Amino acid sequence: MPEADTPRSRRILPIVLVGLSCLGILLFGWLAFGKKAEVAHLAPADTALFVEVRVRPEGDSAEAVQSFARKVFGAGDSGAGVGQLVEDALAVDGGRVSFQRDIEPWLGGRVGAFVTGDASSPGVTLICEVRDEEAAADFAKSLSRKGAIEAGMVDGFFVVGPRAGVAAARKTAEGGDSLGDADGYREALEDLNEERVAHLWVDGPKALKTWSPGGDPGRLGDGPGVAELLVKDDTATVQVVAGIASMRRAGLLASGADTNSLDLLSEVPERALVAAAVPGLGARAGRLRRRLDRALGADTGSLLGDLGDTVLYLGRVDSSYPGEPTVEAALGARTKDPDGYLQRVGRVVGRLPGVNYRFRPSNTTSSREPSADVRLPDGGYVDLEARSDDGLFVPAYGLSATAMFASPPLGDTGRYRSALRRLGKGFRPTLFVDLRGALTALGRAGVGIDPPPAPRRYLQRVDSVMAGDRAAGDRLTTRLTINLR
Prior knowledge:
By secondary structure, the protein is of the alpha+beta class. It has helices spanning about 5-30, 60-75, 80-90, 100-105, 135-145, 165-175, 185-190, 205-210, 245-250, 285-295, 300-305, 340-350, 415-425, 435-445, 455-460; strands at about 50-55, 105-115, 125-130, 150-155, 155-160, 200-205, 225-230, 235-245, 270-280, 310-315, 325-335, 355-360, 370-375, 380-385, 390-395, 430-435, 460-470, 475-485. Among the domains are: about 5-235, no CATH class; about 285-320 and about 335-405, no CATH class. It is built from 15 helices and 18 strands. It has an 18-stranded antiparallel β-sheet, sandwiched between helices. A hairpin with a 5-residue loop joins strand 13 and strand 14.
């Protein structure tokens, strides 16, 4: 059921757009040229979100970035794809900007970005080191004449963005407190990899207070956090290191969950398009419980609250008749009493209008576990099974619940093992996405995902995405890898 267009949902959209802008900044920086600079010194000290990109990494990182970019953007001029994205972003008032002609000749070694404004009008301000101040100043004047944004030279840097952001950079350059000199920022960067291509710094509570007034600041941790981007020949890795205690206080980790106990992900069927493991689902599902209560008109709190480690599965159907599903989905959730849990689900589902619920008791002769089937108003069905031996409750759509963990497993496939190797030693996977297969299956299912030609072409070069974490002492390292074909 789609959510209403509430003031809160309207506040979230600008935040999403800001995040996408920051991702664009990462691409912007990969293939430029220049020397080292401390762009963070022009960002004001009260900045809630800051991104810095090393636009010309050194040593092995430089070769890795060039190789990765060539595979994404094509075998020809690997800078052409990035340049096109930059040109599209800076096209204002019907005018066009040429990356090769107008930007590359003067662009220096690092690009930073900080966010200003509130939820109603957030804005991203770029700070670029330059190697030709005169050319950069001329470009700034050309942008200012177009009137859509403000640009100028500030303390030897090219600065462009909304008027408030450029003014904040000028004030900092004139002696205002700087993020680059702030203890919290400097300390957060100490543990980062020297070979990183980019990093993102965010003060979670401050960001939530600024862009989502009324939200609980504790939901984003109790202080600054930092993520870094690493690039190898065929893999881009985003890595975050955070304190386990801090994440639990923020509700990002279930207080009783073992972060290394996720052993279900590799056991889902080998035809998986998406598989995600969620430790301690019931302990973190408060918001989801409230939505389900409204949708079902029933109290689902105890149902969700009793679920432990859970794996979510979305798989392809290789052959289907017209009108039948082209994808299948299932869930495997640990619970203390699967048989009793199944009966409680039946009491809730059986009251729903237009739904036919039939319970099938266990059969010792055939070793059949307690199960049920749910016929939906549209003619589809959901198969439910209580697996007492494994402590699992399994609902499945498009396949039998028994087949969820009886099919050849995902963990035995080459594409999963390859993604696991790229994730790194000691990391327990929490997410696997067969991106090419997922886009194809969703298209067959008639889901309206149709990116523009250029992004679609780049996405087709991604083989898989995997995320995972590794606990060591009081620290939790979380990684997300984008793996090319």
